[in-house]
Amino acid sequence: MIKLYGVPLSPYYNKVKIALLEKGVKFEESLMRPSQEMTILEKSPMGKIPFVEINGHALCESTAILEWLEDAYPTASLLPPTPLGRAHARELMLMFDLYLGPACTPLVRARLFGSPLPDRAATTAARDTIVRVLNSIARLAQYGPWLAGEFFSFADISAAAVLPVVRFTSQLLDEDLLAHLPGAEPYLQRLAQRVSVARTWEDRETAIAQLLEARAAQD
Asked: Following CA atoms 20, 24, 30, 33 in sequence, which dihedral angle do they give, to the nearest 10 degrees?
């Protein structure tokens, strides 16, 4: 049995969750936040989420987990069949993971957790980075019908995990940031038709609603 640790507010947790659901692998969710407790550091050396336990063996970092899943469960592949296609899917995945998601993080944390809002200069810089990354993804996207072409892949899993964060950030900035990614809305509609994505999005929205309700009760 695989155990997945983390929270549905994390796009990287949701990335792993979607992959597990796509593979049809049985797993349990164990909700927890990042931690520097020694018992957690023994499983996730940076204390980050998500991480998984595979028959007692711990593995962290979302991309490493996806790569393990692809090796361990080669059926229902989440990568295209050609070397160039697989590289392209990974290329797109990294655009979401390394650049787009982190650019949204300071604004999202301020809204969800009551962290101090970035000042105007930092907010403008974050917005400009988000737009630049979306423009870059637009140059790489194929929509054939999936981001890397014909096959649903790592690229789409990361997109499904991060694009809702961009939409949430759009609400905070009162600007439709996804307008900088042509084809985003019909693409999101296609993603929503996948059971793995729909379930993960629903769990994310529930977690956000519960968090905001708890914060409101404390105010």
From this structure: 20
